[in-house]
Write a structure and sequence with these properties.
2 domains; 7 strands; four-stranded parallel β-sheet; 212 residues
């Protein structure tokens, strides 16, 4: 990836889960997109709301002009009435120059499958991002103990893929918050320091300079 690669002429549309990672890329000077538009975090739990917000932001980006880079996974949106209608379907329906980063979900945007396997060390891990910790109460507000028990205890532990040092700060400053989430998951929570190199590369692959 060229050091001189520019995101000029691009709008970024992202789930709010990755807001802080994307803002870090902006502060570091490597992400000079014309506009960054965020939808509420964790809307995969409410497909109708995700469709509404993502569609609205796509239309806004279309008004701005240029290319839109969509920071959502391939299956973050699935129409409950038509499972063939996915995130890419929503993008195509707007008939605009918009391209989605090539990743399955927000976890995959921060660390590749191979990197996650290395970090997991053979254990069955439920992967988290700092955004999941920040917005836990909102994302899981409709979950009861039965749903928690169905999802989490089959894993050995949870690991936060953290390029921001947020999890360690939370563990040091508000350990009771980590313990609260850990108790709900019935899993120990660890953090693993990563870089934003993968996220930056996935974004860069969708710029005009990438030749698409």
């Amino acid at each position: 990836m060229s050091d001189n690669l520019s995101f000029a002429g691009c709008s970024i549309i992202s789930c709010g889960i990755l807001r802080h990672e994307i803002e870090q890329l902006r502060r570091s000077g490597v992400l000079d997109a014309d506009k960054v538009l965020y939808a509420a975090p964790g809307l995969h739990e409410w497909p109708d709301k995700l469709e509404e917000q993502l569609t609205r932001r796509l239309r806004k980006a279309k008004e701005i002009g240029g290319r839109a880079i969509v920071v959502y996974g391939s299956r973050c949106f699935v129409d409950t009435l038509n499972p063939e209608r996915t995130t890419d379907s929503l993008i195509r329906e707007q008939q605009m120059s918009a391209f989605r980063v090539k990743a399955a979900n927000c976890v995959d945007m921060l660390a590749s499958k191979e990197e996650r396997e290395r970090i997991a060390g053979g254990q069955k891990v439920f992967w988290l991002t700092p955004g999941w910790l920040r917005h836990w109460d909102f994302i899981f507000k409709d979950w009861d103990s039965a749903k928690y028990n169905e999802m989490f205890p089959r894993h050995d532990k949870a690991i936060v893929l953290d390029a921001l040092g947020y999890a360690d700060q939370l563990m040091a400053g508000s350990p009771e918050r980590i313990l609260e989430i850990s108790d709900k998951m019935q899993l120990p929570i660890e953090s693993s320091a990563i870089s934003l190199e993968r996220l930056n590369r996935l974004l860069a692959e969708q710029t005009p300079a990438a030749g698409r």
